[in-house]
């Protein structure tokens, strides 16, 4: 199952070029634009310039006590730091290959300049009506989410903010990516007979033994990959978030635990969840359609000053999420 997160951080800034230097007083206000629907699942091999989603008309009435004298021309631009794509008239987002286009109520595509004035009482009021478009601007290899500020109105050549307008929830960009089924649902890893004397102190380990988690992945578009997010959970102690798997209640050995390694990194355990960002979740790699193997190793580790000989078994489950 795919899980997508990320941020849209595209600001529309309305800047005031100097027609005389503006002196401003008052505090900027923030106004929400409520959650927008997710972008429908799409083929990421569509041609660049394809409109993936259109918001429809969005509206917010803004009122704040900010007075600037003189006020003058306001220039509509994008977020500081966002790259403008003149070919598709979009601003870059946190999702590579995806841009956002902002259109005002008169049909002007930003950047655009306009003239606005505060009234004599110092109250600046405006009804904002605009449309957002999500547009493919280049190769898309994974999804993500766009959220946060989308507009900023500023005076005094853009240095004095008046309004901030923001999304209260993400616009999720969801390309067709592979999802996987497990081909090795139950894996036994024999760690062998280990001499009690081979443990020399807390943290000492036995020789590691190799094993693989096998997956078969399908459903993605050609040349599109997904990140495989993996969580190992201690079945005997589901709340365990350490890097040591506890022994089963039937085990008779004492003073040891089990470690699982991804390469040279000892994996920490987490709760059983496929949600991206789960505690101690790790990325096993990138996969397209086809077979995918996750090579791991397991070993015993001394956890107490004294080791008592006996049977030492542990059980871990693994859960995957895809993005």
TrEMBL record:
- PROSITE patterns annotated for this entry? PROKAR_LIPOPROTEIN (PS51257)
Give all residue intervals belonging to the MrkD-like receptor binding domain: 42-168
Q: Which regions span the lipid bilayer?
A: none
Domain Fimbrial-type adhesion, by residue range, is: 178-323
What is the annotated localization of this protein? Fimbrium
Give the keywords, sorted.
Answer: Fimbrium, Signal
One GO cellular component term noted in the UniProt record for this chain: pilus
Q: Name one GO biological process term.
A: cell adhesion involved in single-species biofilm formation
Per the UniProt entry, the signal peptide is: 1-22
Q: Which SUPFAM superfamilies does the record cross-reference, listed alphabetically? A: Bacterial adhesins
The similarity annotation says: Belongs to the fimbrial protein family.
| Name the UniProt record assigns to this protein | Uncharacterized protein
């Amino acid at each position: 199952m795919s899980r997508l997160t990320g941020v849209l951080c595209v600001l529309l800034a309305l800047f005031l070029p100097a027609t005389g230097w503006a002196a401003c007083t008052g505090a900027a206000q923030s106004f929400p634009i409520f959650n927008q629907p997710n972008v429908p699942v799409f083929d990421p091999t569509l041609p660049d310039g394809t409109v993936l989603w259109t918001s429809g008309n969005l509206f917010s009435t803004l009122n704040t006590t900010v007075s600037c004298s003189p006020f003058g021309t306001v220039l509509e631009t994008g977020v500081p730091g966002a790259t403008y794509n003149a070919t598709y008239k979009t601003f870059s987002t946190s999702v590579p290959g995806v841009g956002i286009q902002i259109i005002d109520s008169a049909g002007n595509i930003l950047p655009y300049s306009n003239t606005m004035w505060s009234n004599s009482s110092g109250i600046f009021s405006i009804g904002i009506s605009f449309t957002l478009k999500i547009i493919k601007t280049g190769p898309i290899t994974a999804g993500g989410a766009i959220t946060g500020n989308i507009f900023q109105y500023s005076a005094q050549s853009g240095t004095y903010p008046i309004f901030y307008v923001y999304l209260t929830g993400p616009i999720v960009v969801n390309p067709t990516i592979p999802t996987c089924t497990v081909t090795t649902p139950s894996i036994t890893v024999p760690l062998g007979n280990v001499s009690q004397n081979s443990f020399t102190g807390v943290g000492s380990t036995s020789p590691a033994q190799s094993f693989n988690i096998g997956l078969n992945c399908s459903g993605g578009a050609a040349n599109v990959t997904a990140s495989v997010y993996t969580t190992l959970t201690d079945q005997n102690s589901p709340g365990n978030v350490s890097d040591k798997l506890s022994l089963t209640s039937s085990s008779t050995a004492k003073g040891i635990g089990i470690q699982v390694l991804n390469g040279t990194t000892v994996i920490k355990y987490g709760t059983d969840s496929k949600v991206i960002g789960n505690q101690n979740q790790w990325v096993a790699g990138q996969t397209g359609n086809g077979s995918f193997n996750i090579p791991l190793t397991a070993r015993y580790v001394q956890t107490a000053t004294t080791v008592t000989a006996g049977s030492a078994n542990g059980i871990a489950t693994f859960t995957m999420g895809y993005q």
